[in-house]
Predict the structure of Agmatinase.
Amino acid sequence: MPRPFFEPLDASRVPRFAGQPSFMRLPTPASAAGLDIALVGIPFDGGTTNRPGARHGPREVRNQSSLMRRGHHVSGVIPYERLAVADVGDIEVQPIDLMQALDQIEAGIAAICAAGALPLAVGGDHLTTLPVLRALSKASPGRGPLGLVQFDSHSDTNDRYFGDNLYTHGTPFRRAIEEGILDPKRIIQIGIRGSVYAADEHLWAKDQGIRILYIEEVMDLGPEGVIAEIHRVIGSAPCYVTFDIDGIDPSQAPGTGTPEVGGFSTHQAQRMVRGLAGLQICGADVVEVSPPFDIGGLTALTGATILFELLCTIAAGYPAPARP
Amino acid sequence: MPRPFFEPLDASRVPRFAGQPSFMRLPTPASAAGLDIALVGIPFDGGTTNRPGARHGPREVRNQSSLMRRGHHVSGVIPYERLAVADVGDIEVQPIDLMQALDQIEAGIAAICAAGALPLAVGGDHLTTLPVLRALSKASPGRGPLGLVQFDSHSDTNDRYFGDNLYTHGTPFRRAIEEGILDPKRIIQIGIRGSVYAADEHLWAKDQGIRILYIEEVMDLGPEGVIAEIHRVIGSAPCYVTFDIDGIDPSQAPGTGTPEVGGFSTHQAQRMVRGLAGLQICGADVVEVSPPFDIGGLTALTGATILFELLCTIAAGYPAPARP
Amino acid sequence: MPRPFFEPLDASRVPRFAGQPSFMRLPTPASAAGLDIALVGIPFDGGTTNRPGARHGPREVRNQSSLMRRGHHVSGVIPYERLAVADVGDIEVQPIDLMQALDQIEAGIAAICAAGALPLAVGGDHLTTLPVLRALSKASPGRGPLGLVQFDSHSDTNDRYFGDNLYTHGTPFRRAIEEGILDPKRIIQIGIRGSVYAADEHLWAKDQGIRILYIEEVMDLGPEGVIAEIHRVIGSAPCYVTFDIDGIDPSQAPGTGTPEVGGFSTHQAQRMVRGLAGLQICGADVVEVSPPFDIGGLTALTGATILFELLCTIAAGYPAPARP
Amino acid sequence: MPRPFFEPLDASRVPRFAGQPSFMRLPTPASAAGLDIALVGIPFDGGTTNRPGARHGPREVRNQSSLMRRGHHVSGVIPYERLAVADVGDIEVQPIDLMQALDQIEAGIAAICAAGALPLAVGGDHLTTLPVLRALSKASPGRGPLGLVQFDSHSDTNDRYFGDNLYTHGTPFRRAIEEGILDPKRIIQIGIRGSVYAADEHLWAKDQGIRILYIEEVMDLGPEGVIAEIHRVIGSAPCYVTFDIDGIDPSQAPGTGTPEVGGFSTHQAQRMVRGLAGLQICGADVVEVSPPFDIGGLTALTGATILFELLCTIAAGYPAPARP
Amino acid sequence: MPRPFFEPLDASRVPRFAGQPSFMRLPTPASAAGLDIALVGIPFDGGTTNRPGARHGPREVRNQSSLMRRGHHVSGVIPYERLAVADVGDIEVQPIDLMQALDQIEAGIAAICAAGALPLAVGGDHLTTLPVLRALSKASPGRGPLGLVQFDSHSDTNDRYFGDNLYTHGTPFRRAIEEGILDPKRIIQIGIRGSVYAADEHLWAKDQGIRILYIEEVMDLGPEGVIAEIHRVIGSAPCYVTFDIDGIDPSQAPGTGTPEVGGFSTHQAQRMVRGLAGLQICGADVVEVSPPFDIGGLTALTGATILFELLCTIAAGYPAPARP
Amino acid sequence: MPRPFFEPLDASRVPRFAGQPSFMRLPTPASAAGLDIALVGIPFDGGTTNRPGARHGPREVRNQSSLMRRGHHVSGVIPYERLAVADVGDIEVQPIDLMQALDQIEAGIAAICAAGALPLAVGGDHLTTLPVLRALSKASPGRGPLGLVQFDSHSDTNDRYFGDNLYTHGTPFRRAIEEGILDPKRIIQIGIRGSVYAADEHLWAKDQGIRILYIEEVMDLGPEGVIAEIHRVIGSAPCYVTFDIDGIDPSQAPGTGTPEVGGFSTHQAQRMVRGLAGLQICGADVVEVSPPFDIGGLTALTGATILFELLCTIAAGYPAPARP
C-alpha cells in the first residue's frame, strides 16, 4: 500500500485568508515520522549582532505561505504528489541562553533526521544553520563534510564578535568548517556585497577554498552562469542549501537584520534556486526574515516563495506520479 | 471520570512568538465535540459598506492572542480549569456570494450548538452575527427571543442600503428583530455615536424598545453605571453578547471599517465586560477587527483581550475547581 | 423663493469610498457666492519650525471627511438643512515665498468674506490663521478686535524664531494682537502644555490678559468647566475659533508637526466644541494636520470630525427648518 | 469651430498637493458627452478571492496622479492637445450584491460608449473588466470579438471558485470568451507566474488559443521582443488593453490582492505599454490597485503612471496639433 | 568658582530636526566626571522573552528628545540651571552573551557612580535595571536596601523562564530582592495588569511585602491617590524609580515588547512622576521602548517626555538659581 | 609627523545600534580644520515644490550610515586610511526665510572650503546644491566654471515656479549656469524621466549644451556605457557630483519628494558612482532623501550607501597607505 501523502488545504474550498496558517497550508503532524520532507521553524535570533526579530520569522513565513498553491508553473512539479511533506511546527528553543539554544535546535533537527525526513527549515538568524548542520552531520556519520550553496550578502565566516563571542550570525560557516561539517572547497557563496571591516575581510574564506561570487559577478554572469558555477563547485556529493533572505535586494526583502542595498532580484533568485535541480541536497533553509522590520509582509512572502522553490527543486529529483 | 480540559501551550516552555497561533494558544480539535466553549473564526466581510478587511480578523486575533496567559488578574478565574475550551478553527465561508455565506455561517454555528458547546466567535463584519443568532435560535426552539448586549459605535438597525440591499453590516439587528430572534426590549446598545444620516436615525430602534446608551451617557455613567443599566435591561433570561471593536476609541482600535472618534477606552471596555458576570450568556462574539487597516496589531491585540475577558466572564459562572 | 441649500453626496447611493472627496462630500462650487459657510483648504506649511507636512492637510481631511454623515447625533442638527454650505476648494498659495503666501491666503479669505460667507478653514500650519484673521478684520472694519477660542498645546505667542523671523507657526497670535486684530483679554487658550523655553515663557501672553488653561486645569475642570470659562472670557462679542489638532493627545492625533504627549481626548474635544454654541463665531479653522506624520489617517479623521463639530455648532445658531 | 479640449490644473499655479484630486488633475464634467476619452473609476472589489481593498483604488490613483504632468518625455505626446480627455468620476456601484454590481458597471460604461468616448478605467478588481467588455461589445454589435492585451501575473481564466461561483476576479476572461466577447486567438497574457493549482492549470486557456507569455519568457525576450509578439497576436483588429497591477513586481506594486514575487519592472512595463502604439485600442483599464495593502502610495503612483502611459499611447494614434 | 552647567542646543538657533540627537540635545562629554546627573543609554534586550527591539531604545529616545525644551511648564524648573546634566552616551554592551552583558552594564553604571553622578538611564529591556541596581548598591555599601517605585504593567518578580533561566526581563526584581539590593517592603508597583500564568501569580511578591497597585486601583485612586500611596510606602529613605513604558496604555506606547491593553494614560503618568518630588531618588530609568514595534515614534516621544519629567522631578529637589 | 586620521567607531566593540549616530560612525569635530573631507548635513527643504521633508534627511542618513563598515568590497579602498574624514555636523540653517537660508548654507560650506576640506554634503532638497556650488566657486576664484555629474530623474533647469519664484528645487542648475558657476557643456544628467510640462521641456538645457541621458538611454547603455559618456563629457577639469536620490527607482528610494517610477537600480547606481574614479571631483552631495515619506529607512540606507560609494570613489584618487 503506498504511503499516504499530505495535501495543502484546498483553496477552492477554504479561502486563503481563512484557517490557521501552516507552511504551505499543509497538515501539522506531531512529529516527522513518515515524512520525506519536514518543514520546520527555528524561531531563534540570539546570534544577531544588529537588528533583531528573526525569531518572528517562522510565524510570518507560515502566514504568507498561504498564498502558495500546489505546483510549480515552470517545472510542473507538484511536490505533494511525489513526497510526504508536512509542517512539523517550530523547534522548542528558548531565547535567553545562546549555548543552550544551539543544543535545542540541534536536538530538534536530529529528531527529524532520525525519522528519516529531510529538514527544510525557516529561521531564525543565520546562526541557526550551524546546529542544523551539526545534526545532519551526526545523522550520517560516514558521509563526510557537506558542500554548501549559500545565497547571501555576507560571507558569515568571521571569527568572533565583541571580544570573544564565537557564536553569532556572522560566524556559523567558520565554525562549521572548523568542526569538519562543511568542506570549504565545496562551498559557494552567491551575492556577497556591502562594505567590509578590512581590505582582507574574506581572506580566510578564500584561503579555505570557498568560492565567493560577489554581487558584481552574479549580475554579470546572470542566473545561467551562476548555476553552472554552482554545479562546478558542488559536484555530485551531498550538500546543504542555505538562503539568507538578505541576499535579495532590500527593496524586495526589507525585513531583515543587516540589509545591503544593490542585491540580486527575486526573479534571479527563483531562477538560481531552480537551477539547483540535480544537486544532492540533504537539507535546506531560509533564514534572516525579520518581521518587525518587514514592510507589508513582502519579505515573508518572498521567504515563503523561496521556500516553495526549494521544495519544488528538491521534489524534482523524485519520480513524478503516474498519470492515468 | 471527569471530562478532560484543554490547556494553552505552556509559555514557560514555548515562547509566545513560536508555534502556529490558535486562539489563546489552545488545541485545535477537528470539531466542537466535548467542548463547553468553542472559539471559532468567521472570516467574512461581504456585508461591509465601506472599508473591507474584517475577513482577515480571525487570523490576526489568533496571532495576537499568543499574548494571553491562562488566568484573569482581577477575578482569578482560569477558564481552562473550569471548562473545556478549544479553537475549532474557521467556519468555511466563501467571500463571493453573500446569501450563500449567511447559510454557511449558520451551518457552522449550528454544528457547534449541536455538539453542546457555546460559540464564542471572532468575525468578520457585524453581519456575521445575524447567522450566529439564527443558529442559536434554531438550536433552542422553545427558548424565545434572546436579549442582546451590544458594544458598538453604531446601532446597526438600519433597514436597507444602496437601494434594496437588506443584508449588510448596518442591518443585522433589524433583521434579527424582524425574524423574532431578538427581543428588542431586552437589547442594550453601548457607545453609540458618530454623525447620523437623519435626525430620526434611531427612531425605529427606540420605537422597538431598544435601550441606546450614547457615548455621552456611557462616559457620564462610568462602567459601574453602565453595568447596572445592562443588568436592568437584560435581566435573568438568556442573552447574546456582541462586541463591535469600533465601540472602542480608534486610537485603541484603529483597524476597523467604520471608525468613529471619541469612543470609550479599552480599560472601560474591560470593566464593562467583567460586569456582565451573572447574565445568562448563550453566545458571544468580537467583530469588525480589520487587519489591513490595523496599526502594529493593536486592534487585534485589543480584540484578543476582549475575547479573553468574555471567556473569563462566562467561565466565572461555572464552579471553580477544588484546590487541594 | 428660498435659497437652495447643498447636500452631501448620498451614501445610500454612492459608497463612502467612491467618488472624488470634497469636504463632507459637499458640492464644489467655483466660488463662495450664495454660501453661508465656505469650507476652504489652506495648503501651506511654510511657517513650520520643526516637522513639515501640514500643506497636505486639506486633501487628507477631505478624504477622511467621507465618513461624515449629514447630522449630529447629540444636537440633532443637520447643518445642510439650515445653511448653504459647500467646499470652495483650496486657496491658491505657493510654498516658496512666505510673505507672498500670507498675502495669497488673505486674498482668498477676503473673497469668501466679500461673498458674504463665513470661512471654515482647514490648514495648513498655524501661521495660516494670521492672514485669515487679517481678512476677517478688514471685511468688517468697524467691528473691533475679535475674541479667540484656541484649542492648542502651544500658546503660539512667541516673538520671533531663528534670529529675526517674525512669521512662524509659533507667533501668529502675538502678531494678531500687535496688529489690533485680536483682543487679548478675550483670548482663551485651552490645553497648553509641553516643555518650555524659559520659566517665564508665557509671561507676555499673560501680561496681555490672555487666559491660559493649561492641560492640568482642563483635565481638572472637565469639559463643562472649560465651557463655562470660555463663555466667561469670550462673552457675547464676535470671536474666532481655532483648533490646532496638536491640542488633542498624540495617540489620537499623531500626524502633526509638534506633538506634545498628555493632551485632552477627542471625546473631550468634541464636548468642548459643542459647548461653543451660543458664541458669536465669525470664522473657524482646524490646523496642523500633517499627513506625512499621520498613522492610518487617524489624525485626518479626527480633523474631519472636529470640522464637522464646528460646522454643527455654528449651524445650531440658525433656525431649524420647519418639519411638516 | 474646433471642439474645446480640457487641460489639467496648472501646477505652476496650484501646487500638486493642493486641490481636490481628479485623474491627471483634469476637469470633472458630469458626463462623457463631448469627450474622446473618459477616465472613469470602478470602485468595486466583490470578485476578490483573497485580500480585498481594490474598491479604494480609484480614489488613491486619482490622488497620486497629481504627480503626472502634461506630456510624455519620450514620445513628446501631450494627449490634451489632441483629444478631449476628462475625469467622469466613479461608476455608481454598490459593494453588496455582485450580480447587481456587474450590471451597474456595464451600465456606467455603456453611457460612456453612448457618448462616443473611449473608456479608460481604473478598478476595482479584475472582475470589473468583464462588464466593461460587455458594454463595449454591445456598443459595437457588428464589430466581432475583441483582442486582448493583458499584463498580469495570473491568467484569470479559471472556471469557478468555492463551489459554483462563476464570477470572481479569477474568471473574467473565461466568461468573456464563453460570451463571445473576446477572441481567444487574439489574446496575449504577459507576465504570468506564481504557483499553480494543477499541472494543467492553463490547459483550457492554451486550448482556446491564448498566447501566454510566462514571466521567464518576458524577461528573456525583453520589452522589444514582447512588443513584437503582441503585435503578431493582436494584429490590426480592435482590441482591449487590461493592466493588472500585480503583473509588476510586488516591490514596485505591493498594494494588490494577490501578489506574486518575481515580476517585471515598472520600467519594462512602461516600455511595453509604449509599444502598443499602432494597435486599434477601443478601451483600457488598470486594475487591482488595493490601497489598504499599499505602502507609501507606491502602487497607486505606479497605477497612475501606467494610466498616463496608456493615455499617451492611445493619443499617439491621433494627429498632433499644428504648431505655429 | 561655580561649576559650569551644560545647556541644550539652542532651538532658536538650530532647528529641532538638525544636528546629531543626544538626550535633550545636551552635550556629550566622554565621561560622567563633574556631572550631577548622567543621562545614559543601555542598548541591551537579551532578557526579552517575547518581542525584541529594546536595544534600539536609547537611539530613538535620543532622537525624539529633540522635542524637549529647557523647562517644565508646571513646576517652572529648568534642570540645567540647577544641575550639571549631560549625555554620557551608551554603555558598551554586546548583544550575544547575557551574563557578560550584565557585568558590562554594571561596570558602566559603576563608572557613573564613581564620578559622583546620579544615573538616569534609558534601556534596553527591564532586565537592564538589575545591573544598574547592583552598581548603585555597591557604590554605597552602607546604605542598605533601596526602595523602588515601579511603573509597569508587569510585576517582573517571576522566578525563572524556559526551564532554569534566572535572568530575563520578567525576573529582575526577584533577583534584586534575593540579592538584598531592594527592600521588598518599600517596593510599590503601579499599573499591574494583564492575564496571569496562575491564580497565585503575585503571591511571592505580596508575601515579600511588595505593594501592588493593580491598574483598577490606579484608575480609582487617580494620580493624587497614587502619589500618596507611593510616599507612604517609600518614605524618606533612598529609592530607585523605574518606568517600564508598557505601564502606559499601548495606544500611547505601542512600541514595546509585551503590550497590555487598558493601561494608564501618559497624562496620568506625568502627574504621578511629578508627585515623586520629595522622595530621595538615587537613580532612575525608562525601559522597554522597542522602536521596531513603535508607530511614528510615539513611544520614543513618550519615553523622552517621561525621561524629562523624571529629570525635572529630581532637579526640583535642588535649589533654584538666584535670579537677579 | 603624519597627520592623524579619524576612524569610525569600532563595530566589533560597540554594536551598530548603539551610540549616537554620526555619518559613518565617524568622530564629530567642531570644525573642518585639518580634514581632507568634511561630511556635512544641510537640513533645509524650503525649495520643495511638492512633498516636503528633506530637512530631516541628514539625521536619518546618519542613522542608517551606522550600517557602513570601513572599506569597499570591490576596490578594497578604506578611505579612513588615506584621508582625514569626519562629520562636521549640520550647517545652521533656519527653515523660514529661503533667501537667508541660501546665504547660511553658502557660509557653512565656505567655512569648510576655507579649512581646506572637500565638502561631501547630505541635503536637504536639491536647491541646497546651489549655495554649495556658490561657495565652491568663490573659494577658487580662478578655477573657472565647474562640470557637473548629476544623477537625477529631473533636469532641475526650469526657470521659475508659481509666478516669479526663481529659487526652488526645480531651478538650481539654471541659476548656477546663469551665475557662471557651472559650464553647461560639461554637465551630464543621468536618469531623466517622468512626465513633462511641455514638449520642449528640456529645450533650454539642451540649447546650453547639457548632455541629458534619459532613463531609456541609461538602461540601454548599461553602467559601463554611462561611465564612458560621463568621462567624455566631463573630461579632466574639476567637477561636482550631485546625486538626487530620486534618480533611483522609487521601490528602492521611496522616501523622496517627487518620485518618478521606472528609475535605475541601486546596483546600477553603485556601479556608475564607482566609475567616477579618475574625475577631478571637488565636492559632492546626496540630496532629496525625505524621511517622512520613507519606508523602513530604506531610502536613508540607500542614501548612506551612495554617500559611502562617493567617499570611496574620491578616496581612490589618493595614495593607499603603505602596508608593512
Remarks:
- Chain E is about 30% helix and 15% strand.
- Strands of chain E lie at 37-42, 85-90, 118-123, 146-151, 182-192, 211-214, 238-244, 280-287.
- The first helix of chain E runs from residue 57 to 64.
- Chain E has one domain: 23-315.
